[in-house]
Every structure is written in structure tokens, then in C-alpha cells.
Fold these 2 entries.
Entry 1:
Amino acid sequence: MRLYTICVYLFLYIPIGVIALFSFNSGRHASQLMGFSTKWYGKALNNPFVMEALETSLIVALVSATCAAVFGTMAAVALQGIKGPVRTVFDGLIYVAVMIPGIVIGIATLIGLVTLFDQLNPLIAAIWPEGFKPPKLHMGMGSLIAAHTMFLMALVVIIVRARLAGMDRALTEASSDLYASPFGTFRQVTLPLIFPAILAGFLLSFTFSFDDFIIAFFVAGSETTLPIYVFSSIRRGVTPEINAIGTMVLTVSLIALIAAQILMRRGGKETK
Amino acid sequence: MTQRTRNWLLLAPAGTWFLVMLIVPLTVVLIFSFGERAPAGGVVPAFTFEQYANLPARWAAFKNTMTLAPVGTLAALLIAYPLAYFLAVRADPKWKTILLVLVIVPFWTSILIRSYAWIFLLGGRGIPALLGWFGLEGIRLINTPFSVLIGIIYGYLPLMVFPIFVNLDRLDKRLLEASSDLGAKPWRTFMQITLPLSIPGIATGCMLVFILLMGEYLIPALLGGGKVFFVGNALVDLFLQSRNWAFGSAVAVTLVVIMLITVTIYMRLINRLGASREDVSIM
């Protein structure tokens, strides 16, 4: 039994470990383990395409995780005090957002937005003042951020709601009995208690957006995110540079995940 | 400002966002699936079932998905169950949390990089090259159903372990003690107590993995080398290469409908099993 467990852990971590190991290998292939070298990192970090893709990915992840954390928390707080059809509809929306496969979300966003833009662009051109070039709506960073935010909002609502449900109601009641305004209660009682959950939701959202390939593949237009860059490089052939990029991507996710885990656990203990 | 208005204002951004980025796009897909292909690549509005009648053209993708998704789910279950059992029942409580976190963490890291790791390992210069030193020449691992299956198990194992662990962890351990006190052998205790009681966890894990697998694109694209392709790969081809949006929409709608049917059947099954579980606990 114990041996079996060790084997499964080896299965889970050997491939990741091999990538990390070979990213520091000066040889080119898995069968050529040579000396220690950081040259592939240097090569990756000096590649302008990699840096540009990294920048796009970071901006998209930061903006969409922030929007998702803010709007998702707002919705979660409101849903706490609502019953009836509105709540049922929202529960349904969240369920659909989480259950529909990423590839279908990507496709739907692509054709939905392209159709919408095709309708809007002539309108904008018509009302734009003569002599100025009218802006043209197109798929790109904006559509990618919007698509990610939609999915991540559902995730944040789920996480924050679980925290709100575990919160002691007596605290908010006591606060309003002591004549705190609803906003005062929220700022001084609710927010500090749910803040770890919001931060955890933000970090999970950030990792998801940073790692997402399939939605970005459809929605990013001419922009290249880091996963899209890695995917097309793999298609061209395996190079040690990908090992270095892969190791860096895994490290970013791991740091965010560990932080999220710590926050969720610490948050869980305080209310008990 | 009343509480009602405040709640509406708080819900407004998320609600609008869901409407514009989820409901409207999904409706467009549904409408397009009944449309006709325009010469330029767009869709001519129409009401025809032509696209659905054309579905057999992508039969291979559906067949692959509907074979490899259940097989992958089952393989993941067989590997995950003993691990979940060990973590929930046997592991030292001191190490339990950290061991569980170590299983879940890979799931939240990039599936692209994790699948790439297997290209690196299974590709011609990875494990096959190592086997070559031992005289086993010419073994092909990458771009086979086997490599896709490995990728699937590797990618979705954490998602299978978690619900089963939660279920087994909540299981009343006194039942197991009672069983052994009454002279049952460990194997019999497992078959008659532990396994039946963990069926809800198994069902949840299988459903989660199966649903995600049905929409999978990356694993077959990277590890199947164009020979093993899923519905997801057909969708990428239809939308990004051949630009047949009407037919692509019909394929996407069909995929979602198959998923919904599967989920409904699963839910029914779980409810029935849940009822029988009540009987066990009463006994």
C-alpha cells in the first residue's frame, strides 16, 4: 500500500522533475544528460517573442483576475441576502459557466463577439465624426480578458460564497445592533473575514488565466499568450528552451497555488 | 438606498458580464448550428437541420472521444482509488493534508506543460532512446492511443483522487472497527462496507473527469499526433482551419447535449445509490 502510494507520487512528479532537470542540462535531448547550464534560460529570456508573450499573459491574468475578484465578490455578497428566482438564475449561470467545456466557451466567445463586432463596426463608423478614422472592434487582448473574467467570476463566487456560508451570522447582526451602517458592517466585519477567500480566489484565477490555452487559442485574435507560444513551439519541434519556459511557468503557478492554499487554510481556522 | 437596490447594484456587473460573454455567445452557437455555410466562411441565417444531418462526417472524432473518455476515466479511477483510500484511511493524520495537497497541486498547474513533459519523456529521444541501450530498438510510444491514455491519466488523476478522498475521509471509521470486531476479514470489510459507502465519491470523480475529457483538445493534439483525435480537435479544425462555423456549431451543440445527457444519467444514478446508502447506514 505504502509502496503503491510512493509509486503514484513518483508518477505525478517525475515528468515535472524531468522538465526542470533538463532545463538546466547543457545537452539538447533527454538521452544526453551533460553538464549544468543556465543557457536555455538565457536563451528564453532573450527571445523577444517569449518576452512579448509573457507580457501579454501577465497583463491578461492580472486584469482578468482583478475584475473577477471584485465583481465575483460583489455578486457573492449580494447573493447571500437574496432568495427566489434571481438567486436560482445566478446559480444556474455559475453552473453553466463551470460545466461548459473550455473549448465550447472559446468557440462561443469567438463567433459571438465576431458577429457582434460585425454589427457594431458599421454603426460606429457611421456616427464617427467625418475626417477621423473610426475605431474598429476586433478580437484581441480585450476579448480575451472579457472571456477569462466571465469564467473566473464563477470561480470566485463559489470560493467566496463558501467562506460567507461558514461565517458566524451573529457577528454582522451584532455590528448592525451597534448601529453600524450596512457599508460599515461590510468594511469592518465581513470584508476582513472573507478577505483571505477573495485573495485565494484572485490567486487561483491568476494561475488559471496565466495557464489557459484553449480559450485564448480561439479568442486572442492576433495576440500571442505564453501558452499559445509554447504550443506552437512544441508543434515546430521539442527544444530545451521549452523546458526552461515550462519550468518558469510551473514555478509561477506553484508559488500562487501555495499562497492560495495557505490563505484558505488560515482563513478557515479564524472563524472556528 | 434600500437593501434590495443595493443587492441589484452588486449583482449588475457580474450579471451583465454573464449575459454578454456567456448567454449571448452560447445562443449564437445554437442559432448558427441551424444555419447554412456562407461562401466567405461565415453563416447565412436559415433554419435547416442540414448541419446535424452532416454529423456522421465527424463520426471518427465522436467515436474516439466516446471510447477514450470512458477508458481514461476508468483507468484514472483504478489508479486513484487505492491512493485515496491510503490517504483517507491509512495515512498518518499528521501527513494527510500535505499529502493531499501534493496530489491536487499538479492539477492547477499548466496542463500544456504537463502534457509537454510526456512528449519529452515518450518522444523518440526520451524513454525509447533509453530502451534502445538495453537492446529494445524501434519501440514507438508517442502518437499512439497509449500515449494519449497516459496523458489523460496524468492530467486528470488529481481530480479523481479528491472527491473519493473526501468521501472516504468522512466515512465513519467505527463501521470498519465493528466489521472487524465481528470477525470479518479486511477484504470482506472493504467489499461490504468501504466500497459501497464510497460510491458517491467514485461517481462524482468519474463525472468530473469524464466531462472534462469530453471537451479535451490539448492531450490528443500533443500526444496523439493527429492519429488519435477527439471532438475538441475536430472543433479546432472546423473553426480555426476550415472555417465552417455552421457545421462546427452543430458539432459543439451535439457535444454539449451528449454531456448534459451523461450528467443527467449520472445524477439519477447517484440519487438511487444515495437511497441505497441510507439503507446501509440504518442497518
Entry 2:
Amino acid sequence: MALDPQKFDSIAKEYAHRDPADIIRLAIKEYSPNLAISFSGAEDVVLVDIACKAGGAFRVFSLDTGRLHPETYEFLDKVREHYKIEVEVFFPEPSTVEELVKAKGLYSFRRDGHKECCGIRKVEPLTRALRPLDAWVTGQRKDQSPGTRAEVPVVQNDPTFGSPDSPLVKFNPLANWTSNQVWDYIRQNGVPYNSLHDRGFISIGCEPCTRPVGPGEHERAGRWWWEEATQKECGLHAGNLREAS
Amino acid sequence: MHVRMVKKRLLDGSECRKCRQAADQLSSRGLLERIDEVVWAVEGEPDSPGMQLGARFGIDTAPFFVVRDDAGTEQVYTSVMRLIKERLGAEVSDRDEAAGIDPDDVGGI
């Protein structure tokens, strides 16, 4: 089964404020077994917990960039053991990483920005991870990044990895949850979590590019903090992105 | 098949970075001539044709491509590499495909 893509807007509106468990159950019902949860080793562990309780066949994958914190590696294994599930780990292409390091060293992102390194270490393995899937589930939330994530539907045609010839559905069950709601769930349900969170890390990525945030700082302030935060120059709209047709 | 490319023109008259990169990807493969029409989304002009197309298709980043087949059906591609691979018939490596994606556009990783 699969949802009618023409109805994604109405489905997203219907499910916008439903419990994430309802959205994950919908994803499993409609796309299992070609459905996977993207697990970054951070608070998106909530998705794994909810999906395991929902039942049904789904995959879980993580992207090992080669630069993760030791705590994140330990946490990936902890999740594997705790839930008795396979966590598929995707690695970047060795030759591409080697070329980057040979040309620019191990910290090119400090000079050139993070996009090239992320493209090689995260996006390319993600492309491979998504290829066999009909749908994937992410922990993306509106409150994670003001402005750039202002519009995060709970279900959508993936605008980045899908295409008319190779459609891919993206579920964002936590889109309308706040960080507080995520952590309430973790604590109330005894969900294991990355120990970095106990040291002030909110958003967790690669070790060189992630730091704890201070009081009053937004969680994304702990990522690539040396880069100027500017509005993406290629954006076409601000605020609401869809006009009534 | 008719291929429209929507590009963004910035306030200083230049085109946006991703539009330049997409054009380079097409040009380096000898495929720029396969773009039948360029439509401009002009910064600060929400009524410009490209902005209108973006609103119509729910696309919030330039460039994007509207492919109309002979039956009149329109499909939108937000990735130049996907367009090249799926509609323009050229080989695209995983590496090139990934290089065409802005990691900040992904979300959830």
C-alpha cells in the first residue's frame, strides 16, 4: 500500500497535531517494509522507541561520517542492544574522503564551510541508504532551526531525494513537537539517550562541528558556530511557502 | 519534452549560487542547450514569473525545473542531477548526485 501523493497536503494537515505514534503507525502501515528510520544518534531515538512499540517491519539506519563522538558510537550500539534491532550503518565512500583529506586536510570545513565535508561524509551515504526505500522517517522538528525549518510537514514528497520518476516519501512525525515534549517522552518512557545530552549538547552531529550550547542559546547554535548564519540566498520565499492554488 | 529552468536573480543582478552551479553541471555535460526556457525569480519581486512558478508548485529554493511532456503533464525536479539522470539521459555517479545536494536542505540527519 502507499498513500496517494496528491493527498499529502491534506494528510499532513490531518496528522499535523496527531501523536507521533499515529504518524509512525501510518508510515509503517503504508510503506513497510521499504521504510526506514534515520537515526542520528541524538534525541531522534524517540522514533525508534515509538516504532518498536508500534510493531511492523521497518529498518533503522545511521550515517557514520567517521567523525562522530565516541559517545555517539556507544549510543548506536546501546540502541541496537536495548531494542534488539539491526541498525544499518552507512559509511562515506573511502576514496572520496581520502581525496578530500589529501587535498584539504582533516579540518577543511573550518575554512571552507561545512557543505563540502557534509556532502561527502553524510549526503552521499544517505543517498545510498535511501535508494531502495519508498519512504523514510526523520526526527526533523520545526523548532530546531528557526526560519529554515519553519515549514516541516509531517508527511511530504521528499523534495531533495525524491523525483517524479523515483518518488520518496518523507515522514517527520516530530515536526510539531518541541524539544521539551521529546525529552518528556524520553524520561517518561525510560528511553536510552546519548550521554552527550547530559553535558549540554542538544543538537548532536560530528565531533569537530558540535559543541554544547549555553543558557539562552538556540540548540542549533551548537553546530558550525564559526559560520555566519545568513539567510540562504537561493530561497524563493519566507514564511508560508505554499499559496492556495 | 519542454524543460523550463527557474533561476533566481539576486538584488545585485547576479544569479544565485546554486543556479550558477546547476548551470555549470548542465554545461559541463553539454546539456545546457536542453533547457528550452529560463524563467527568472527576481529577489524582491514576488510577482516575477519564477516566484509565481515557485508558489504554484510549492518550491521554495532555486533552481528548479519544470518538465512538460508531450501530453502536457508537468513534473518538477528540484535536483539538477536528478533531471540530468532521469530526463536528459546522462550518467550521474553517486558522488555527483550527492554533490548536487545542499546538506542544509536535507533535515533530519
